Amino acid sequence: MHYWQQFKLRDEVLEVLRLELLGPRESKEVPEAFHALLRSGDADAVCVAINYYSSAASSVRFGGVNRFDAEETEVLERARAVLRNELNGDDREGGGISEGRVTTALSAIVDLVEPTQDTQLVLKALSFVRSEEGLESAGYAAARVLEVLPSGGEESESLIAALALVAFDESIPHRSRWPALGAIGMSPSPTAVNWLLQALNSGDIEIQAIAGTALAEMDMGRFRPLLERTVATWPEVREYPAYQFLELLREG
Description:
The chain is mainly α. It is about 65% helix and about 0% strand.
């Protein structure tokens, strides 16, 4: 999140550390500043460190090295503390910073999420975040949880219900609802299938494409006739996610 690059910490000592962290990456002060911020107990300072970790981790996809890879477990625990609202810190700007904290913490746990510890945290986040970035992170975290949770269990069904509230809430910007709908498709439960079928009947090509992709990946043989009938009603489309769904149908 670029937000933290401009965010000034109120504690002067922590602010000096933040500036050190944002300086040249080869600076010898960077590891010390990172650890001091991560362990400070201040919610915003911890989020600055978590955001820095996420940035370093993302560089691995482009051939870089995450110099803080060994801190994965500690970052995960600090992110959970942020989501539990266990750390000190004030909510500035009418509470907007709280969404920034939650989004930052979610982005850190997406690839590390553990259903036994994180399901309730993801549920709480889904009821709170409304920014595109926050809903994207919450949707991806929920998808990871649903991959592991037993289908049809109480926690799984609660998570699907929370995702459906987001996916079908027309007051939320259109694209921000896609990750929640896609996450529903990670569960093969009858409840999840029913929500996806409802989306398939929505008349909205992009929503249909997201739901259709989930159904196709769940059971192409079972749902192909229905999906092909849906596609037959579409005009010529070239936009994502519709073209990706059409490719899936052709290849499947």
